[in-house]
Write a structure and sequence with these properties.
The protein is α+β, with helices and mostly antiparallel strands. Helix content is 29%, strand content 30%. It has seven helices and 13 strands. Strands 1, 2, 3, 4, 5, 6, 7, 8, 9, 10, 11, 12 and 13 form a 13-stranded mixed β-sheet that branches. The longest helix has 25 residues. Keywords: Signal. It comes from Streptomyces bugieae.
Amino acid sequence: MPGARRTGRAALAGAVCAVLAAGLAGCGADEDPDAGTNGVGKLPPAKIQARTRAAAEHADTVHLTGNVVSKGLTYKLDMSLAEHGAKGELTTKAAAFQLLRVGDALYLKADAAFWAGEKSGASGAAQKLGGKYVKVPASDPVYRKFSGFTDKDTLLASLLGLRGKLTAKDRSTVGGVRTVRLAAGAGAGGVLDVSLEGTPYPLRLQRAGGAGVVRLGDWGRRVDLKAPAKDQVVDYGSQISGAH
């Protein structure tokens, strides 16, 4: 049946042409890189920055992971932060310790070697503190030194600062989520990946001056915060007064 064969060939040729046409159209120079996104990639850089800051401020919680260089020390962070507290772990070259803040109460759990370093000459007290949740009074330098790592607004404000003229040209992905890259000072002042999907949350920050890289995720996810059991707590102020 020659006629049927010709009809079949024509249909096949038409299908191939349709596929090729679709492929060529998808690769066209005029394709919109922000198609199907939340649209922030089309905004001026300053407005992208304003949107992502507002999104971060309005979120109740966030999970931070990565490295932060502060005052010559590199801290590895794994912190879940909420409006009225936080929990997680900090690691330095010398030590690793857990932080927990519930309201104004700050607890720090570390080994005896950490406390011996914080309180030079107080090795006896350090042995009592090691392995326990130490409730640190707000007047103590240890509180001032570490409480900032548990304060969502303070920590985000310090991390999300970008230095220099802003540009937003590049597109990337973080954890499979499409992003627009907000760069300051051609990247030297920091690079922030902002989500192009859903709420324009900041997802990854390369800090200025090589001061670390931080990922931000689990925005709005519940963080369960509760004080440790009493038998796991040492009241730093009342029981270990000799360590001061």
